[in-house]
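request received
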Amino acid sequence: MMSLLVDAIAHSPAKAVININILRQIEKDLDIDEKISVLFLIIEDYANAFRDIFDLFQKEQKTENSYIIVDYVKKYPENWEDKILEALCILNNREVIRKLRTSFEELDKHYVPNCNSYSKNINIVAKCLYKLCESLNENEQKQLLSYIKSDNSNYELLLDNIDYLELHMLYWMQITYITISKNEKHNMEKLLKHLKKFEDLKIISMDLEKFENRSNVVDTCGNVGTNDKNCLHPISPREPFFTEKNNNKMQFINNGLCIIINQMYFEKEYKTRFGTNTDRNNLSDTFKSFGFKIKIFENLKKKEMLEKIKNISKDYGNKYDCLFLCILSHGYKGGVIASDEKEVSLEAIEKAVCCIELKDVIKIIIIQACQGKTRGSINNCLTTDGLSDFSIMELEDIRQFRKFLIFMSTIQGFVSVRHEDEGSWFIQEICKILKTYGNHLPFIECVRKIIASMQEKNGEIEGVQIVQLPEIRIDRLDADFQLRNIITPAL
Ligand SMILES: *[C@@H]1O[C@H](CO)[C@@H](O)[C@H](O)[C@H]1NC(C)=O
Ligand SMILES: *[C@@H]1O[C@H](CO)[C@@H](O)[C@H](O)[C@H]1NC(C)=O
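response:
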């Protein structure tokens, strides 16, 4: 699905921007855990990488001014430029990328580092595993390690006091506790079993689950460092996670619900968002023409906003096939601002939308908001919005996170442009493209058209040339869908 998005750029930017000398400069700016992450991402043969990478790690510890990434790519030069750039994008190390004198947006488009179901040169499972490492805090890492050690009695002593989870993962691969490979034969089962004990890891687990290939399970275990005790308990046969058949046929939307949260006025600090009513009206008209039921809320405080979203299934049932939730507001990096000027994180919105009652409904969130000024850290939002620490993840729980997509007016760290009469560039483009193509192109192709035509736009604000690039922040749709023009009788 994502591939066309990035195929827009035919040739890779990598060779033009990086060479060994530049890599050496970059390496100076990376700390040891970033170096390990980069190495982890660029590996070719995961099953046999542990020793190599561990040796490099030890060298780094012992030798001053060591260049272990340089060492590695000299040993495994194939396509290294591309892999390194992609890895740096995934690490989201913008400072380093800035030094490469290339635009992050360009790379972002090319490599789509946020998408967990797509990667260009890097092993997609490794990408997900890296994101797993990033999403665990110190205690959770310890917890996970202790679970896994309890499965493997002769756990590698070299790793006794090593905190870098990626190194442990490479070890897990070496002992085939997990396997990932180039040709889509992955086995993540034992790891997934433990991940289910972590409430916050539902989404990443689901992404990993997608790569699990039951027919290709590697049942050998412990050829290095473990003994066969672990194999005494055969893995119990397990139902596939999603028992409904993964229907890849195009779904046509006959009965949709569109909820618009229109934030125009704010309590004190934030400016009135003139033009947003044009956006609201246009969205409403557009979705009406596709037969959607429309609900509009104005100027909601944080608590009201999250409650309204959580109440969707209670207030409108779940007898529609598609839900569009459009949020028009100011924003900050990682979320939107409510009318009481409180921050509402994307995670909180996602959690509110993705409830079990709506598990079979396609859920699309459209967000028109800046993602610029960083206020507070995303981690703070996570805790204040109340993600609990530990609980068992139920099969039912995870299903609710599928069939879900977030389409944002801008990539993280950037502004969104709004015309004070004509509405925002993004929402206007959505309405225009959907009106023109929505009836005969799959939704995802419309999204691509919107992204493409946004790149043609530019304007000036206070003398500064402004451009804007929207993005798909999360894509967990398992099949494409298409809207239909439905003439609703006037009420
Ligand atoms: C959500 O539903 C609850 C329970 O019916 C109700 O008390 C509450 O007012 C609703 N919240 C909003 C913001 O509509
Ligand atoms: C939005 O609404 C205005 C006013 O009704 C209309 O002139 C304009 O064409 C609409 N734009 C889109 C993209 O639908």
